[in-house]
Amino acid sequence: MGKLQEFSISFDKNKVVYSPGESISGTVTLKVNQALQCKAIKVNCNGFCGITTKVNDPTWTTEEQYFNSSVSVADKGTLKAGAHTFPFKFLIPATAPTSFEGNYGKIIYRVRAFIETPRFAKDYDAEKSFFLLSLLNLNEVPDIWGVRSSAITQQFSYMLMKTGTVVLKAQTDMRGYTPGQVIQVSAKIHNQSGKTTGKMAASLMQRVTYETKKPTHDLRTIAEVEGGVVKANKEVEWNDQIIVPPLPQSFLGGCELIKIEYYVKVSLNFPDVTLTLPIHIGNVSLDKRLQTANKAAASPAPPSAADAPATPDAAAATAAGTTIPPRPAPKPAARPTPRLRASSHNSPSAPPADYPDGAEPMMQDNRRQSQLVSPNAFSYAPGLFFGQNQQPPAAASTPGVTGLYPSLSTSSPMIVPQGPPPNYNTSSYPQEAPPPYDESCDT
């Protein structure tokens, strides 16, 4: 290495995995055996995605840059013999995607150091990669709850002759998994033909799409389990498990050139029947407690009568965001004791109306009609007469009248006795019968 014995990069605490928005720091170490002239010592940190059209080709046909930062740790001068260390620190953008390495592309993050020497001298450089992990929380993925199921019906042909159909139904117990979890696969095969099917199988598949002028699709089988056959005119239910190995997550947020998808493929090799069950691979597993909370939030209970505002004031207070304590229900008013009404001593000013045969006088509507008492109930006094066709008074309709049975005329309210009925035994009316009509005319 000539004058330079050591040129290396190290990260603080030997950390190699970082998260978006985190800072990365470390030191650059130099050891020279004799004086070395330099123009500058620079440290660069960058992240990018490169895609190629050939497998493991280091020449990128398409690139996408995420960040590129440089800092100068030493100016022009001469490095004396011995060891030298230069610290550095960079901030990783919060939008940077997760690291990825595939057959046709990579997402790379690295720190590089450069020693720029005078003209005609050799330049030196060093490089060290680090990995970026942006956690994918499966609980935040849309439409992630529930099982994933599908069904397909395939015509069974043998020797160019159609012998029946095969119905294949399959499902997974969840729609999202993390590495280390188990995928529960269940399938039901109904062979409605006269031939025995081939073996059934379930596979965890990964499909990576590299976006170039002509997109490249890289399809791989990650894991596979195999079952038995289904005899003619039989129905079989098959259950098996697939353990999820360490895999890149489904979404590379912030990357526009690489797309990762996962699905479970359930198939029969004879006849050729295949169905797919899309799933997601993430870093934070599903929490069933959140599923219950989401269901409860999606179907709120109808408001009860106790929650509705009972008065306009309560409704206005609810709209204003304030709370009014409930008011006690008003107590029913005491029903007044019915009082008997005394009749007037004046004679009627007009004779009672004559009604046709069979007709009855129309009574006015009175809610207290059951409390009325006939005036003739007090006609036990001699010489006291009450009209038999006198109409009962109507209910009070004039504001301000407080009597129990007000008069029909609004101008002269009827006086309601407040004590017991008068004692007519002490009345000054004559006790003898009146003289005949002829004697009255003579006098």
From TrEMBL:
SUPFAM superfamilies: E set domains (SSF81296)
InterPro entries xref list: Arrestin-like_C, Arrestin-like_N, Arrestin_C-like, Arrestin_domain-protein, Ig_E-set
One GO cellular component term noted in the UniProt record for this chain: cytoplasm
Stretches with biased composition (Low complexity): 296-324, 336-348
Pro residues biased stretches: 325-335
GO molecular function, one term: ubiquitin-like ligase-substrate adaptor activity
UniProt superkingdom: Eukaryota
Annotated ranges, domain Arrestin C-terminal-like: 162-286
One annotated GO biological process: nervous system development
Residue ranges of the region described as Disordered: 295-362, 390-443
Family note: Belongs to the arrestin family.
Record's protein name: Arrestin domain-containing protein 1-like
Provenance organism: Salarias fasciatus
